[in-house]
Amino acid sequence: MRRAGGLQLLLLLACTSWARSLQIPPEIEQPPTIISTHPVLLLHFLMTLLLSAVKLRATLSHSLSGQKMGSSSLRHRCYAFNKLGTAMSEEIQLISLLSVPNFPKQTFDPIKVKEGEPLVLNCNPPDSMVPRLILWTSTGLEQIPQDKRVSTGIDGNLYFSHTIQNDTMSDYTCVVSFSNIRTIVQKSPMPVVVQSDAAPDSPSPESCCPLVSRRRPNPTVEWIRMGDDLPKGTKYENFGKMLTVASVDESVEGKYMCKAKNSEGEEVHYFDVIIEAPQWVSGPPQNQLYVIGSDVHIRCAVSGKPVPDITWRKNGEIFRDDPGQKKRVLEDTVVLHNASPEDSAVYQCEASNQHGSLLANVNIMVMRVRRGSRGDIVLNCSVFGSPTPSISWARIETSGDIEGERFLVLTNKSLQIISAEKNDSGGFMCVASNSEGKSSITALLDVKDPTRIVTPPQDMQVVSGTAAQLICRAEFDKSLESSFEVTWMKDEEEIPLNFEEKYYLTKEMLQIRSVNLTDQGVYTCIARTSLDRDNASALMTVLDVPDAPVNVLITELQGANNISLSWTPGAENNSPTTEFVVEYEESQWDPGRWKELKKVPGNLATADLILHGHLNYQFRVYGANLVGPGPPSEPTKRHKTPPTAPDRNPENIKIQGHLPHQMEISWDPLLPIEHNGPGLEYRVSYRRQGLGDQWKESLVKRHSFVVRNTSTFVPYEIKIQSRNSHGWGPEPKVITGYSGEDVPTAAPRDVAVEVINTTVLRVSWTPVPPATVRGHLGGYSVHFLKKRSLLTPSRLLDERQSLSFPGKRNHAIVPQLEPFSEYSLTVNVFNKKGNGPKSDPVNFSTPEGVPDQVSILTTSNAQKDSVLLVWGPPPETKGILTGYLLQYHLINESSLEVLESLEKNISAPDTTQWQLQGLKEGSLYRFQLRACTRVGCGPPRAEESHTINPEVPALFNISSYVSDTYAKISWTATLERHDLELYVAYMNNREGIWQISEAVNSSQSFHLLDGLEPGTVYTVRLLTKKLFDNASIYEDVFQTQGEGVTGFQRDTLAHGWLIGTMCAVAVLTLVALIACFVRRNKGGKYSVKEKEDLHPDAESQGMNDDTFCEYSDSEEKPLKGGSLCSLIDNDGTGDSLSLGDYADEAGEFNEDGSFIGEYSQPKHRGSVSEPNGHSLVAQV
Mind listing the pLDDT tens digit for each residue in 568-581? Predict the structure, then answer.
């Protein structure tokens, strides 16, 4: 029995059309693949050397062969082949060395250099094609130490940025190692002498300054890429003097700057990095598997300078363009139309220029693939034998028989899979057996998700000149991602996407730049993989402005000055024409300039025009739609009109009176084209209104006229008529104007005021007679003067304000007065010319008002049944302060409801604090304080606070120590409250803004407030909750040191504290030394019993056993730095304060016992330290 040929099957999930290519699975037999090569092989000293130059992979047996590329080039290639194709390696260069590279024999005189000067020792290594390593050593091969000052350059030279005395050496040797040929050569030693600039034995009388060393500081090197960041993977070598980039591609190109600098100056050097060798643009082409009849595309995308030449081979043989056989070579792409199994081969793409070459082997396999209908697939297994073999099917993954309703074995023993699913992918084995033996064949089934467009392009309308974006999002099988592509067609023709100035394409979008009418059409998006494809279409309509009208004709209606213009509209370009615009140009007054004459609706194609006389016209028309105005038509022939009388009179006539006894008349002149003929002038007619006088007339050519010697502000009738040499214009309209104004002459009478409230009053008056206004009435002005505040009646003021009220009126409301003040008020009338005389002054006083809100309200020193409230008086009392109203409410902390409300009247106006008694313990209260006058109380200021729960132990010994820019808040915590979270809040009383710290553990015993302003008053609170609800354990007001404390006081206090502290430290240190000395003389460590006798109290048991005068009885072991003699209990539970807290401090105690003074950090002298702010220890 013979075994049938191999079977490979691929299936697409769902009934879709077949596509072109997919990745070759590694399980399928395929041509050999060269994994790596050695580009250079070395033959030295005329010895025969055989090296393995190629590593390869293939699923079939293979053979190797070599080919010499020329008798003198010593370049070879390696070919690996099997029955499916031939893979080819890159060129392998053989280098034959006839001699060993070496240095010439030389003898060097000593190189002398002054200390501090730079030095370069030249290596000049021998030329060789073999890689080398350059080192600098002594003749004993001891390597020269290198650092930022001394280093080896890439040229092999040894560089000294500056020399020192230790650089003097007689045998600087350059050593070159050729590891590939196992050879080391060295240059003759070079002696170097560094001469010192030593000072003379006895300085000259003129010189008394020491010599300055000439050593130069080591330069630091900085690398910069001009206009961009350094590439990824950048490394600095040779002490920062060499920049290396691991992976080089076009993104590395650019201008680089190396900057070396020290205190003496800096130097820069620029490098232009240009990648000229061939580079893959998006990686080398990949192996592909195609279906018979597909179009095969193999693209070799490379870049380089100059552009690389691309050579194509098939199985190592040159592959040429053959249009007759539908095999095309198009520069960087090979296209095989209607591929057949004979096209299966290894295709080579080789790109090369003068700087190097790239080679890619691409395995292309073209196979037959059986498809099922409606998602079904049939796997055939044709065998023959005698006796007739039996056939069975099994899954390779499970090694068991195939079961399930979707798997059927047909009568011809083929396997049918109904409605194939993705998890059906895998290997299927067909096993044929009879009495003579057994044979099997494997079929590989790969079920893929279908390619489908999920967001198709939509029909759209696009304005010409803008960009259009067509969206096309597709889903596909992720294993086919390398073959997935999206292409576009317009009106069934493929879009030339290489036209980058017009089109921009991504996998999800086609963008068309600067759309025009030629871009209108049906666009089809095609999403394809190597197995299937899907497409969707959309209509793009381009909207553009209308085309220019044509056939513009002139027809006279009633003479040359009355014509009809007609035209033929142009194409509307998908947007209806909304209007036509007729423009004209005349050659006499403004030649060459087109102006709008008339607009007509877009559904008309004619326009009746009335023209001016004595002009030479030509006309044109353009259409407009929603997109915009279109191009104009061609101009008509010239049309000349005869001269006529003016057809209009001047407009916008203005009558002004800048002076009391004259009237200035001005108007807008007629435009030149409105003259209708030569000799234009204006007739000005005027007369007093209502008197029946005759018109006075004047002819003028300018467009203004002044009537003099008029009465002040009287009405006139005026009319202006235009004329030229061919007649008068139409009868003009009569308008009324007034002669010049003057300031009013009368003051308002009967001025009275009505005080509405503490800040607002109503003022009334009798208006002045109209004749006394002597102009257009502007309105009335109210002037009021604050003479004094009734709180300080002896202090006279001069605060003036005024308000203007336009129009004719007899009263006004004056706001923004100040309560409890005395005012004086006057009123005057005004016109455009100015203010009239003021009325007689009226004196009045504003009543007393309620005070402003108190400036500050704080709560502190909360006890179980009382709270201390401290406040500041209101900024403005607005009357005589009579006291304060305190309202306080018991609050339910869970629901925030008011449980009880009480109030307290504080009748003493000078009171600024109040100890409120009779509160419930452990409760939340809201306090509201109002300042009051005889009229009433002002707005409240509110604060909240808790009374203390006696079951919760409180902190004690809370105090503050103050310096000029910082303060220290200290406390002592009981054992029960040793792990309490505290918050310190403080406020600059001038700014009124609270700041709160992060959580502070109570075991820390203190907290520093820094960044304070000198000579400034602050309020500080110690809180148990971060939410600032005024539930403070402690509150204090202090002033930082500054201008408030004289220098003499600070110095005196500081000296006193310093002397006392130093004396205490000296005495305690002496006692500690004596105690340690006595213990040492006893020998050994004291027993636990003795230590318990020394510290019988329970609190002392918490101390470390070896913290009190421990010593080692071994003479080789010195005392530990941490062995201290503790002089004061360090558990933080006592109420004594550390002397270290007062070292170098000066200050004073305020009335409530808190300490106010200058705080400074402890000065460490090695004898006294303050570990936690409460203990003083001495180091012995």
Answer: 999 999 999 999 99
Residues 6+ apart with CB under 8 A from 135: 143, 152, 174, 175, 176, 177
Phi and psi at 77, nearest 5°, equal: -125, 155
| pLDDT tens sequence across 405-437 | 888 888 888 888 888 888 888 888 888 998 888
- Mean pLDDT per 10-residue segment, the chain (1180 residues): 31 31 50 73 46 44 46 68 87 72 87 90 85 87 87 89 89 88 87 75 33 57 87 83 81 87 86 86 83 81 89 90 80 85 90 89 76 64 83 79 82 85 84 87 82 93 94 90 88 79 86 92 91 89 95 89 94 94 94 95 94 95 95 95 94 90 93 93 93 91 92 92 94 93 94 94 95 93 94 90 94 94 96 93 94 93 90 93 96 89 93 93 93 95 87 68 88 70 86 85 85 89 63 79 52 56 79 72 42 38 36 36 34 36 36 34 33 29
Find tokens 């294993």 and name the residue.
479
Q: What is the C-alpha separation between 193 and 195, in angstroms, rounded? A: 6
- How far CA 1094 is from CA of 612, 1081, 1100, 1107, 1122, in Å, comes to 126, 18, 9, 13, 21
Reading phi first (left if > 0) and then psi (alpha if -120 to 50, else beta), residue 877 is in alpha
**Following DSSP, what letter does each residue of 871-887 receive, concatenated?**
EE--S--SS-EEEEEEE
Sign of the dihedral through C-alpha 676, 677, 683, 684: positive
Alpha carbons 497 and 488: distance in angstroms, whole number: 9
Write out pLDDT tens, residues 1126-1163: 333 334 333 333 323 333 333 333 433 333 333 333 33
Q: How far is CA 1097 from CA 481, 572, 1107, in A?
A: 80, 107, 17
Q: How far apart are CA 826 and CA 785, in angstroms?
A: 9
Question: How big is the chain, counted in residues?
Answer: 1180
In 3D space, the residue among 937, 888, 941 whose CA is nearest the CA of residue 909 turns out to be 937
Question: pLDDT tens digits, residue range 258-290?
Answer: 998 888 888 888 888 888 888 888 788 888 877
Angle (CA) 820-823-826 rounded to 5° is 155
Residue with tokens 């030389």: 106
HSE of 238 in the Cβ direction (CA atoms, 13 Å)? 16
Tokens of 561: 């000055």
Q: Residue 1141 carries which DSSP code?
A: G
The residues facing 1175 across adjacent strands are none
CA distances from 179 to 132, 185, 468, 771 (A): 7, 11, 63, 120
- DSSP-assigned beta bridge partners for residue 254: 273
Phi, psi of 1066 (to 5 degrees): -65, -45
**Which two tokens mark 985?**
């809040």
Q: Are 203 and 134 spatial neighbours (Cβ–Cβ below 8 Å)?
A: no
DSSP string over 327-372: EEEETTEEEETT--GGG-EEEEEEEEETTEEEEEEEEEEEE-----
d(CA 950, CA 921) in angstroms, rounded, equals 8
Measure the CA–CA gap between 9 and 371, rounded to whole angstroms: 9
What is the 3 state secondary structure string of 194-243?
Answer: EECCCCCCCCCCCCCCCCCCCCCCCCEEEEEECCCCCCCCEEEECCCCEE
The Cα 435–Cα 420 span in angstroms is 35
CA Rg, the chain, in Å?
A: 53
End-to-end CA distance of the chain: 102
Which residues are CB-neighbours of 820 under 8 A, at least 6 positions away? 758, 789, 790, 791, 845, 846, 847, 848, 849, 878, 879
Closest CA to 1161 of 1141, 1132, 1180, 1134: 1141
Evaluated on CA atoms 681, 687, 693, 696, the torsion sign reads negative
Pair of tokens at residue 538: 């959309």
